[in-house]
């Protein structure tokens, strides 16, 4: 059985790690380079670094910060935010990242997913999907969750798999930052519809939420931010707890 992954997420704005609730009310969570180094040392399986304002501000990802983080970590490291071309992916990978995460750009031009996958391999491409429930349906949002689309979550995830995504990073905007647990029902549906790994994001508040996301949610990886950034849950303790619940972990 494949081991499950624990992935801290560093949301970056103005060079600092930030965290909010339901994508708003951001507060400072520390220096991203120091946090990345700490997480690599304590046993995180991977890291995700999201430049959350790059798309809204229509600017490129902060390459120098990517390079600094890449130098400090020896675990897989994904970067997202403002990535809208094969050329930008190449530059990010050259600066030390192992994967890229794309969201708004593939909604705008879906064939970009195929271009990236064809050039660098599916293992390099995470398609991030931010969605919330609207009139009973999960609808995709872009630009840091600020723009609604007509795309339905599960159909969109399947299309991205068909175009070459290696993983889907699904963030429930309804659960984000609430610490009330992941969107396990939606995650389980997604798992049934896809053959590629699903990373769950949004709602982690305690260790049992990770048990739920790996069992009832059937996720391949659990991503969280504030509970790690503010020392509410320690990754070594979390992994030990999950192992005690018969969930396969790399320890």
Can you walk me through this structure?
The protein has 251 residues and is an alpha/beta fold. The protein has one domain (5-244): Aldolase class I (TIM Barrel). It is 35% helix and 28% strand. It has helices at 32-42, 63-72, 86-94, 104-108, 111-120, 153-162, 184-193, 207-215, 226-229, 235-244, and strands spanning 5-13, 16-21, 24-30, 47-51, 77-80, 99-102, 125-134, 137-142, 147-152, 167-172, 198-201, 221-224. It has an eight-stranded parallel β-barrel with strand order 1-4-5-6-7-10-11-12, surrounded by six helices. Helix 1 packs parallel to helix 2 (63-72). It is globular and about 45 Å long. The mean pLDDT is 90.
**SSE string, helices as H and strands as E:** EEEHEHEHEHHEEEHEHEHEHH
Q: Count of helical segments?
A: 10
Quote the CATH topology: TIM Barrel
β-strand amount: 25-35%
Kindly state the mean pLDDT as a whole number? 90
CATH architecture verdict: Alpha-Beta Barrel
Strand tally is 12
Helix content: 25-40%
Number of domains: 1
Can you identify the CATH class?
A: Alpha Beta
The SS-based structural class is alpha/beta
Largest sheet: 8 strands, parallel, barrel
**CATH homologous superfamily label:** Aldolase class I
First CA to last CA: what distance?
Answer: 15 Å
Q: What coarse outline follows from CA principal-axis ratios?
A: globular
Stretches where pLDDT falls below 50 for ≥5 residues?
A: none
Q: How do the strands line up in the largest sheet?
A: 1-4-5-6-7-10-11-12
Q: Could you tell me the radius of gyration in angstroms?
A: 16 Å
């Amino acid at each position: 059985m494949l081991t499950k992954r624990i992935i801290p997420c560093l949301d970056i704005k103005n060079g600092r790690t930030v965290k909010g609730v339901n994508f708003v009310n951001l507060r400072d969570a520390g220096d991203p380079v120091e946090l990345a180094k700490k997480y690599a040392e304590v046993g995180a399986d991977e890291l995700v670094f999201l430049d959350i304002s790059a798309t809204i501000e229509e600017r490129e990802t902060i390459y120098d910060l990517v390079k600094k983080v890449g130098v400090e970590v020896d675990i897989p490291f994904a970067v997202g935010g403002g990535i809208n071309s094969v050329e930008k992916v190449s530059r990010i990978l050259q600066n030390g990242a192992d994967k890229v995460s794309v969201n708004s750009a593939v909604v705008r031009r879906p064939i970009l997913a195929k271009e990236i996958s064809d050039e660098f391999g599916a293992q390099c491409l995470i398609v991030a999907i931010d969605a919330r429930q609207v009139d009973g349906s999960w609808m995709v949002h872009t630009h840091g969750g600020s723009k609604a689309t007509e795309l339905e979550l599960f159909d969109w995830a399947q299309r991205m798999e068909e175009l070459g995504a290696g993983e889907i990073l699904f963030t429930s905007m309804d659960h984000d930052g609430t610490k009330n647990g992941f969107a396990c029902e939606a995650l389980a549906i997604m798992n049934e519809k896809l053959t590629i790994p699903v990373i769950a994001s949004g709602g982690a508040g305690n260790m049992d939420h990770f048990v739920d996301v790996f069992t009832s949610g059937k996720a391949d990886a659990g991503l969280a931010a504030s509970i790690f950034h503010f020392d509410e849950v320690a990754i070594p303790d979390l992994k030990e707890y999950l192992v005690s619940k018969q969930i396969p972990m790399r320890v």
